[in-house]
Amino acid sequence: MKNILITGGAGFIGSHVVRRFVQNYPNYHIYNLDALTYAGNLENIKDIENESNYTFVKGDIVDESFINELFAKYNFEGVLHLAAESHVDRSIEDPLSFVKTNVIGTMNLLNAARKLWKDNMEGKRFYHISTDEVYGSLGAEGLFTETTSYDPNSPYSASKASSDHFVRAYGETYGLPYVLTNCSNNYGPFHFPEKLIPLFINNIINNKPLPVYGDGNYTRDWLFVKDHAIAIDLVFHEGKNHETYNIGGFNEWKNIDLVKLLCKVMDEKLGRSEGESSKLITYVKDRPGHDLRYAIDASKINTELGWKPTVTFEEGLEQTIDWYLSNTDWLNNVTSGEYANYYKKQYN
Ligand code: NAD
Ligand code: DAU
Description:
The structure is a single chain. The strands form 3 sheets. Strands 3-2-1-4-5-6-10 form a 7-stranded parallel sheet, sandwiched between helices. It has a 3-stranded mixed sheet with strand order 7-9-11. The protein has a two-stranded parallel sheet with strand order 8-12. The protein starts with a strand and ends with a helix. The radius of gyration is 20 Å and the shape is globular. Helices cover 43% and strands 17% of the residues. It has helices spanning 12-24, 64-74, 88-93, 95-117, 155-174, 196-205, 225-238, 255-270, 299-305, 313-326, 328-334, 338-347, and strands spanning 2-7, 28-34, 54-58, 78-81, 125-131, 178-183, 185-187, 210-213, 219-224, 243-247, 252-254, 281-284. It has a domain at 2-190 and 222-251 and 293-310: 3-Layer(aba) Sandwich (Rossmann fold), CATH 3.40.50. By secondary structure, it is α/β, with parallel strands linked by helices. Bound molecules: nicotinamide-adenine-dinucleotide (NAD) and 2'deoxy-thymidine-5'-diphospho-alpha-D-glucose (DAU). Pfam families: GDP_Man_Dehyd. One of its GO terms (molecular function) is dTDP-glucose 4,6-dehydratase activity. One of its GO terms (biological process) is nucleotide-sugar metabolic process. It comes from Flavobacterium swingsii.
């Protein structure tokens, strides 16, 4: 039995990764470390909470002594690090909390792994899950590759870029066996409704305005979250040490086109007449430092590890909408309490 640490496993992507690892690897004991911030929710992993190869640990990666004790106690052989502050708009309001979790928290994990593995790095692996936002913004043409220079524009992407640099530096300086991936925008079940797709699904259900930033002509490359979890599994097991892999959906959408598609599908699902939900579209003040376009060249992970998305955007979006429509309790629970304050402040 190998002890494997997954951080941030009560969040959106982390919950899919934890579920996949607990179900597919009975020879691993999965420790899910999560601080349960506003974005962390044990409901996201309720279906696997009683599995014998699974343990939830509540704790903060910023707490250095706690992290050191945890590593000493469980002697982890692998780490998949997803815990982060992940929302760009929140990073504009409160950059320091992003530095604490995304930079200092990552440093604490790197130091603990380095200490624990210093005499024998054989078979050990530190996997840092990162974002395409570290590359900054593309113009109308081109794709991000693994050699694109870092050029982050938001406090969130700057904090993720910083953590990526530290991971690489620990590989070069101390020989830490790491792998790193930079992924595009995910969507799917358990996505917190502060992000575009779940926010707009929730607002359409509740007949609330759909706040499109700026002119809506910003482009993102969308990937179904379960395909990201498959890629993470593959890179953890078959990726080469000290390598970076870009992960993306080969699926670019301008925000406004995506929102119109979402409105159309929601009209069908809710039995509304065509065009009803799109009347909710409201152009609002732009996000400061808004990156124009992200698009990933995922050919390295495709040719070297054989990964490609298994779900088309139309299928993934429909599955996602169906999930939200049949999990209104989940949606209502996460939008109660603190969410209302956030929403009021962000959208006035
Ligand atoms: P999320 O915000 O849904 O979840 C983050 C999780 O981390 C939550 O469960 C939260 O409780 C936990 N957490 C936050 N601070 C913590 C701390 N100090 N200690 C312990 N746990 C803490 O995020 P997500 O969208 O699932 O993203 C997961 C990772 O993937 C992040 O590192 C993010 O940068 C990266 N990523 C996300 C996307 C995306 O589209 N969502 C795309 C590419 C990369
Ligand atoms: O690219 C990967 C990144 O994708 C991840 O690293 C981040 O953790 C994740 O949050 C996501 O970042 P984005 O900023 O691209 O996602 P978000 O859902 O916040 O916004 C998507 C696009 O929609 C972006 O161009 C901003 C726009 N938007 C967003 C919101 C919340 C709106 O127009 N209105 C909104 O209310």
